[in-house]
Specification:
By secondary structure, this protein is of the alpha/beta class. The mean pLDDT is about 95. Helix 1 (about 15-30) packs across helix 8. The protein has an eight-stranded mixed β-sheet with strand order 3-2-1-4-5-6-7-8, with helices on both faces. It contains twelve helices and eight strands. It has helices at about 15-30, 40-50, 65-80, 105-130, 145, 155-175, 200, 210-215, 255-260, 260-265, 275-285, 290-295, and strands at about 10, 30-35, 55-60, 85-90, 135-140, 180-185, 225-230, 235.
Length: about 300
């Protein structure tokens, strides 16, 4: 189920921490790994470690925010190994501060690295995956994006944006055999060293997360999944939609929404929508529109 023999995987930010753990485990499962990191020496070191352990790896120094460098990395992998089957968007940075004290430049920088870095890398492999009708892409999201965390408005915004990117790419890639998922890790890395207590970090080795990553890129991987992983524990997160309540319009509509808040928030019967227009379809149905009218939304 997790045999990756013959597959070519790019792991961004793989010079240390989670990326390094991902790269090593992918190689142990048979993948040929492109070890990407902005720090070329770190990338070379991890590639050498994998080779010494009997795996196949090459270093690819590049910034995920540089389109030309990313394109060159994908071209190098394609020349050497025929194409890219797996992309793990792992590279990231932190610039934590409360929103009141946060510099907008730091907000933009974090969004640029996490979100646009994943966009640039995914775009670079997308056409090749479509042509070969096979691909596995993983976005690294976070509980800070899914649920919020003090001092991480920039990081949380970028990480939740990656969920939206995953949802749409999974829909668009489905008929081409491209499966796209999110991994929300908790691990002791340079990025979490100042966030979590030392006693907690001792239980959060990056290697305890990587088995979940392998499951998300395997032959029989799911698609549109958000997998939370840490300390050897794995769970699914979902973006859900409650059954809701038809309120209608009129002068009292706002007051009725407030008055019925508990009922429209009732989670019994909630669903995980198959696509974004599920919300609009439900709303139109509640308002009395017919199926043909709803179908027009998909045009």
């Amino acid at each position: 189920m997790t045999d990756l023999a013959g597959r070519v995987a790019i792991v961004t930010g793989a010079g240390g921490g989670l990326g390094r753990a991902h790269a090593h485990l992918l190689a142990r499962h048979g993948a040929r790994v492109v070890v990407n990191d902005r720090d070329g020496e770190a990338a070379e070191r991890v590639a050498a470690e994998i080779a010494a352990a009997g795996g196949q790896a090459m270093a690819a120094p590049a910034s995920v925010t540089d389109e030309a460098e990313v394109a060159a990395m994908v071209h190098m992998a394609t020349l050497a190994w025929g194409g890219v089957d797996i992309l793990v968007n792992n590279a990231g940075i932190l610039r934590d501060r409360s929103f009141a004290k946060m510099d907008l430049a730091d907000f933009r920088l974090v969004v640029d690295v996490h979100l646009m870095g994943a966009v640039i890398c995914s775009k670079a492999v997308w056409d090749g995956m479509r042509e070969r009708r096979y691909g596995r892409i993983v976005m690294t999201t976070s509980s800070s994006g899914l649920y919020g965390n003090f001092g991480q408005a920039n990081y949380g915004a970028a990480k939740m944006a990656l969920v939206g990117l995953m949802q749409t790419l999974a829909i668009e890639g489905e008929k081409y055999g491209i499966r796209v998922n999110c991994l929300a890790p908790t691990a002791a890395t340079a990025m979490t060293g100042g966030v979590l207590a030392d006693a907690a970090l001792a239980h959060l080795a990056p290697e305890a997360v990587s088995p979940g990553l392998v499951a998300l890129v395997a032959q029989d991987a799911p698609t549109r999944a958000i997998l939370c992983a840490g300390a050897g524990h794995f769970a699914r997160a979902n973006v859900t939609l409650t059954e809701g309540l038809f309120i209608g319009t009129g002068d009292d509509a706002a007051a009725r929404v407030a008055a019925e808040w508990d009922r429209l928030s009732d989670r019994r019967g909630e669903i995980v929508p198959a696509y974004g227009f599920t919300q609009a379809e439900r709303e139109l149905a509640s308002a009395g529109y017919t199926e043909p009218a709803m179908a027009a939304l998909h045009g």
